[in-house]
Amino acid sequence: MKITATGKSVEIAIQNGLLECGLTRDEVEVKVLEEGGLFKKAKVQLAWGEDLETAVEEVVKEEIQPEDIPKVEQTEEVKEEKTVPAKVKKVRVVDSAALQKRCEEFLTGLVGFIDKEAKVTCDAGENELSFTVTGTEKGLSRLIGYHGDNLKALQVLLSGLKRKAENVIRIYLDVNGYKADRQTAIIALANKTADQAVSIERNIHLDPMNAYDRRIIHTTLQERDDVTTESTGEGEKRHVVVKPVFNR
Prior knowledge:
8 helices; Ribosomal Protein S8, Chain: A, domain 1; 3 domains; globular; 9 strands; 21% strand; GMP Synthetase, Chain A, domain 3; alpha+beta; three-stranded mixed beta sheet; three-stranded antiparallel beta sheet
Protein backbone atom coordinates (compact mmCIF):
# COMPACT_ATOMS: atom_id res chain seq x y z
CA MET A 1 0.00 0.00 0.00
CA LYS A 2 0.97 3.64 -0.44
CA ILE A 3 -0.07 6.85 1.29
CA THR A 4 0.91 10.49 0.88
CA ALA A 5 1.56 12.63 3.94
CA THR A 6 2.41 16.30 4.46
CA GLY A 7 4.03 18.37 7.22
CA LYS A 8 5.96 21.53 7.97
CA SER A 9 9.16 19.62 7.20
CA VAL A 10 10.08 16.32 5.59
CA GLU A 11 10.64 14.69 8.99
CA ILE A 12 7.27 15.87 10.30
CA ALA A 13 5.60 14.65 7.11
CA ILE A 14 7.20 11.22 7.60
CA GLN A 15 6.01 11.08 11.22
CA ASN A 16 2.49 12.05 10.15
CA GLY A 17 2.58 9.27 7.56
CA LEU A 18 3.77 6.71 10.12
CA LEU A 19 0.93 7.68 12.44
CA GLU A 20 -1.47 7.36 9.51
CA CYS A 21 -0.44 3.83 8.56
CA GLY A 22 0.40 2.66 12.09
CA LEU A 23 3.85 1.40 11.12
CA THR A 24 7.43 2.08 12.22
CA ARG A 25 10.14 3.81 10.17
CA ASP A 26 11.87 0.47 9.47
CA GLU A 27 8.71 -1.03 7.95
CA VAL A 28 8.15 1.51 5.17
CA GLU A 29 9.99 2.97 2.20
CA VAL A 30 9.94 6.79 2.12
CA LYS A 31 10.02 8.84 -1.06
CA VAL A 32 10.26 12.64 -0.75
CA LEU A 33 7.86 14.26 -3.24
CA GLU A 34 8.33 17.90 -2.16
CA GLU A 35 10.95 19.35 0.17
CA GLY A 36 8.65 22.15 1.32
CA GLY A 37 9.65 25.68 2.25
CA LEU A 38 8.59 28.80 4.08
CA PHE A 39 5.09 28.88 2.61
CA LYS A 40 4.84 25.35 1.31
CA LYS A 41 4.44 22.06 3.16
CA ALA A 42 6.72 19.11 2.58
CA LYS A 43 5.16 16.04 0.97
CA VAL A 44 6.33 12.41 1.21
CA GLN A 45 5.09 9.05 0.03
CA LEU A 46 5.21 5.97 2.27
CA ALA A 47 4.98 2.48 0.80
CA TRP A 48 4.73 -0.90 2.48
CA GLY A 49 3.51 -4.42 1.80
CA GLU A 50 3.18 -5.27 -1.90
CA ASP A 51 4.05 -1.71 -2.94
CA LEU A 52 7.33 -1.65 -1.00
CA GLU A 53 9.40 -3.41 -3.69
CA THR A 54 7.85 -1.24 -6.42
CA ALA A 55 8.72 1.91 -4.49
CA VAL A 56 12.32 0.80 -4.10
CA GLU A 57 12.58 0.11 -7.83
CA GLU A 58 11.21 3.59 -8.63
CA VAL A 59 13.80 5.23 -6.39
CA VAL A 60 16.58 3.23 -8.00
CA LYS A 61 15.38 4.23 -11.47
CA GLU A 62 15.40 7.89 -10.46
CA GLU A 63 18.86 7.77 -8.92
CA ILE A 64 20.57 5.72 -11.66
CA GLN A 65 19.87 6.75 -15.22
CA PRO A 66 21.28 4.89 -18.25
CA GLU A 67 23.17 7.99 -19.38
CA ASP A 68 24.91 8.13 -15.99
CA ILE A 69 26.52 4.73 -16.51
CA PRO A 70 29.92 5.03 -18.23
CA LYS A 71 30.26 3.11 -21.48
CA VAL A 72 33.01 0.52 -21.64
CA GLU A 73 34.20 -0.90 -24.92
CA GLN A 74 34.01 -4.68 -24.88
CA THR A 75 37.10 -6.57 -25.85
CA GLU A 76 37.03 -10.07 -27.31
CA GLU A 77 38.22 -11.39 -23.96
CA VAL A 78 35.28 -9.76 -22.14
CA LYS A 79 32.75 -11.04 -24.68
CA GLU A 80 33.88 -14.62 -24.10
CA GLU A 81 33.35 -14.41 -20.34
CA LYS A 82 30.44 -16.34 -18.90
CA THR A 83 27.42 -14.37 -17.76
CA VAL A 84 27.37 -13.89 -14.00
CA PRO A 85 24.04 -15.05 -12.56
CA ALA A 86 21.88 -12.32 -11.02
CA LYS A 87 21.88 -12.05 -7.28
CA VAL A 88 18.86 -13.55 -5.59
CA LYS A 89 17.14 -11.23 -3.16
CA LYS A 90 17.22 -12.78 0.29
CA VAL A 91 14.37 -12.28 2.73
CA ARG A 92 15.64 -11.86 6.26
CA VAL A 93 13.75 -14.02 8.74
CA VAL A 94 14.57 -13.45 12.40
CA ASP A 95 14.00 -16.06 15.08
CA SER A 96 11.12 -14.57 17.04
CA ALA A 97 11.16 -17.11 19.89
CA ALA A 98 13.24 -14.91 22.22
CA LEU A 99 11.08 -11.85 21.55
CA GLN A 100 7.92 -13.89 22.07
CA LYS A 101 9.19 -15.07 25.45
CA ARG A 102 10.02 -11.51 26.59
CA CYS A 103 6.61 -10.23 25.53
CA GLU A 104 4.74 -13.11 27.16
CA GLU A 105 6.60 -12.61 30.45
CA PHE A 106 5.88 -8.87 30.35
CA LEU A 107 2.15 -9.35 29.59
CA THR A 108 1.70 -12.19 32.09
CA GLY A 109 3.24 -10.15 34.89
CA LEU A 110 1.16 -7.08 34.01
CA VAL A 111 -2.27 -8.70 33.60
CA GLY A 112 -1.70 -10.83 36.70
CA PHE A 113 -2.07 -7.70 38.85
CA ILE A 114 -5.34 -6.78 37.13
CA ASP A 115 -7.06 -10.14 36.63
CA LYS A 116 -5.75 -13.34 38.20
CA GLU A 117 -7.82 -15.40 35.74
CA ALA A 118 -6.38 -13.69 32.68
CA LYS A 119 -4.46 -15.76 30.13
CA VAL A 120 -1.92 -14.73 27.50
CA THR A 121 -1.65 -16.65 24.23
CA CYS A 122 0.45 -16.02 21.12
CA ASP A 123 0.00 -16.93 17.48
CA ALA A 124 3.46 -16.77 15.88
CA GLY A 125 3.81 -16.34 12.13
CA GLU A 126 6.67 -15.39 9.80
CA ASN A 127 8.04 -12.10 11.16
CA GLU A 128 4.79 -11.60 13.10
CA LEU A 129 3.59 -12.15 16.68
CA SER A 130 -0.10 -11.85 17.57
CA PHE A 131 -0.80 -11.78 21.32
CA THR A 132 -4.25 -12.25 22.81
CA VAL A 133 -5.20 -11.57 26.42
CA THR A 134 -8.44 -13.10 27.71
CA GLY A 135 -10.07 -12.79 31.12
CA THR A 136 -13.00 -11.16 32.93
CA GLU A 137 -14.51 -8.20 31.11
CA LYS A 138 -14.49 -6.00 34.20
CA GLY A 139 -10.87 -6.72 35.04
CA LEU A 140 -9.38 -6.28 31.57
CA SER A 141 -11.46 -3.22 30.64
CA ARG A 142 -8.73 -1.14 32.28
CA LEU A 143 -6.20 -2.61 29.85
CA ILE A 144 -8.33 -1.48 26.92
CA GLY A 145 -9.09 2.03 28.16
CA TYR A 146 -11.23 4.70 26.49
CA HIS A 147 -11.53 3.93 22.76
CA GLY A 148 -8.63 1.48 23.16
CA ASP A 149 -6.12 4.15 24.23
CA ASN A 150 -4.53 1.94 26.92
CA LEU A 151 -4.41 -0.99 24.52
CA LYS A 152 -2.51 1.10 21.95
CA ALA A 153 -0.07 2.28 24.60
CA LEU A 154 0.49 -1.30 25.74
CA GLN A 155 1.27 -2.38 22.20
CA VAL A 156 3.84 0.42 21.94
CA LEU A 157 5.48 -0.90 25.12
CA LEU A 158 5.63 -4.39 23.59
CA SER A 159 7.27 -2.99 20.45
CA GLY A 160 9.83 -1.33 22.73
CA LEU A 161 10.98 -4.79 23.81
CA LYS A 162 12.30 -5.47 20.32
CA ARG A 163 16.02 -5.44 19.70
CA LYS A 164 17.48 -3.89 16.54
CA ALA A 165 17.52 -7.12 14.53
CA GLU A 166 13.94 -7.82 15.60
CA ASN A 167 12.51 -4.64 14.09
CA VAL A 168 11.32 -6.70 11.12
CA ILE A 169 8.88 -8.52 13.43
CA ARG A 170 5.46 -6.91 13.75
CA ILE A 171 3.61 -7.21 17.04
CA TYR A 172 -0.18 -7.27 17.40
CA LEU A 173 -2.12 -7.24 20.65
CA ASP A 174 -5.81 -7.76 21.37
CA VAL A 175 -7.65 -7.93 24.69
CA ASN A 176 -10.89 -9.90 24.99
CA GLY A 177 -11.50 -9.53 21.24
CA TYR A 178 -11.78 -5.72 21.47
CA LYS A 179 -9.87 -5.02 18.25
CA ALA A 180 -11.72 -7.71 16.31
CA ASP A 181 -15.11 -6.34 17.40
CA ARG A 182 -14.09 -2.74 16.74
CA GLN A 183 -12.70 -3.64 13.32
CA THR A 184 -16.02 -5.24 12.38
CA ALA A 185 -17.87 -2.11 13.50
CA ILE A 186 -15.52 0.23 11.60
CA ILE A 187 -15.79 -1.84 8.41
CA ALA A 188 -19.58 -1.58 8.64
CA LEU A 189 -19.28 2.19 9.23
CA ALA A 190 -16.97 2.56 6.22
CA ASN A 191 -19.35 0.81 3.82
CA LYS A 192 -22.42 2.60 5.20
CA THR A 193 -20.70 5.98 4.84
CA ALA A 194 -19.55 5.17 1.31
CA ASP A 195 -23.09 4.21 0.26
CA GLN A 196 -24.41 7.43 1.76
CA ALA A 197 -21.76 9.58 0.05
CA VAL A 198 -22.63 8.06 -3.33
CA SER A 199 -26.36 8.46 -2.67
CA ILE A 200 -26.23 12.16 -1.75
CA GLU A 201 -23.26 12.89 -4.07
CA ARG A 202 -21.36 14.77 -1.38
CA ASN A 203 -18.19 14.32 0.65
CA ILE A 204 -18.72 12.96 4.17
CA HIS A 205 -16.34 13.79 7.01
CA LEU A 206 -16.10 11.09 9.69
CA ASP A 207 -15.35 11.83 13.34
CA PRO A 208 -11.65 12.05 14.30
CA MET A 209 -10.02 8.61 14.63
CA ASN A 210 -6.64 7.21 15.56
CA ALA A 211 -4.26 6.00 12.84
CA TYR A 212 -5.20 2.32 13.27
CA ASP A 213 -8.94 2.99 12.79
CA ARG A 214 -8.34 5.34 9.85
CA ARG A 215 -6.27 2.66 8.15
CA ILE A 216 -9.20 0.22 8.44
CA ILE A 217 -11.43 2.77 6.67
CA HIS A 218 -8.89 3.29 3.86
CA THR A 219 -8.26 -0.45 3.43
CA THR A 220 -11.96 -1.32 3.42
CA LEU A 221 -12.88 1.20 0.74
CA GLN A 222 -9.81 1.02 -1.49
CA GLU A 223 -11.37 -1.79 -3.56
CA ARG A 224 -14.47 0.27 -4.37
CA ASP A 225 -14.48 2.29 -7.57
CA ASP A 226 -17.34 4.59 -6.57
CA VAL A 227 -15.56 6.35 -3.68
CA THR A 228 -12.12 7.53 -2.61
CA THR A 229 -10.82 8.30 0.88
CA GLU A 230 -8.47 10.92 2.25
CA SER A 231 -7.18 11.72 5.73
CA THR A 232 -7.15 15.38 6.68
CA GLY A 233 -6.63 17.51 9.78
CA GLU A 234 -3.81 17.64 12.29
CA GLY A 235 -3.25 15.81 15.57
CA GLU A 236 -6.40 14.84 17.46
CA LYS A 237 -8.57 16.40 14.73
CA ARG A 238 -7.24 14.13 11.96
CA HIS A 239 -10.10 12.26 10.32
CA VAL A 240 -11.17 10.47 7.14
CA VAL A 241 -13.14 12.08 4.32
CA VAL A 242 -15.15 9.74 2.07
CA LYS A 243 -15.60 11.21 -1.42
CA PRO A 244 -17.94 9.94 -4.15
CA VAL A 245 -16.38 9.42 -7.60
CA PHE A 246 -18.30 11.04 -10.46
CA ASN A 247 -18.23 10.38 -14.24
CA ARG A 248 -16.95 6.84 -13.88
